[in-house]
# Entry
Amino acid sequence: MKKRIMVGICAVCGNEGEAGTQVCRFCGARQEPGWQGKGGFLHKTVNLEHGRPFAETAIRKLLSEIRAAKCERVRVLTLIHGYGSSGKGGVIKSECRKNLDYLRSTGEVKDYIPGEEFSSRSGVVKAWLRRYPELANNTNLDRHNPGITLVILQ
# Structure
């Protein structure tokens, strides 16, 4: 008679593992006792430049979307802020990243990576890909797109 193994989904990386274990074998995250199909990888894309808002409006939207994403248990947020028409980066992009620096320092967001650094050769991105394997299918990977930023929320 074959032993049936209960399978759970890691709340951090979304990979399947044996329910009842205390640590995910993929990402090493500690699990709740009897973990089941809760959580998993959730990704959301937010276009901060839609409608060509002023930077202040875009930042208010950024903060609002981060709060909403956390409530929705989103793990990774892709922000589209554009690069700007001047050729050296736009105001929304720079203000967005300044705010993300602050949010990271206060623990509101876990980390972020600029789109131009979102490369499968980067050590930081490799660590993200181990924790969130679904990111390997992200269309922005290895495109070096300065008009986006990926944010890890949890």
